[in-house]
Design brief:
Elements (H helix, E strand, L loop, with lengths): L3 H13 L4 H14 L5 H11 L3 H8 L10 H17 L1
Helix pairs in contact: 1-2, 1-3, 2-5
């Protein structure tokens, strides 16, 4: 069975090692900032999000595709975080 620490490490690495660079740059920093503070339900949802296709996730974040209902709140948070990072640069 996977320990909590191993799960966090796996999910963080998976956030940074996506199929497309754009998603690395969106999900990686978000994971670095929030994953250690997530409760079990949030971790499970984020883990499920990490299983999704990058092209679909990017299209949802950019508003080019309807967001799956189970991810709506999480992707809104991810998008807000990513836009905030861009505004600072």
């Amino acid at each position: 069975m996977e320990t909590h620490e191993a799960r966090i490490k796996r999910m963080t690495m998976r956030s940074w090692r996506r199929g497309i660079k754009e998603m690395d740059l969106i999900l990686g920093p978000y994971a670095d900032a929030y994953i250690a503070r997530m409760d079990e339900d949030a971790l499970s949802l984020f883990d499920t999000l990490l299983e999704q296709n990058d092209q679909d996730l990017l299209a949802m974040i950019l508003g080019q595709q309807e967001t799956l209902p189970q991810f709506a709140k999480l992707l809104a948070e991810v998008e807000k975080f990513a836009r905030g990072r861009l505004a600072k640069s």
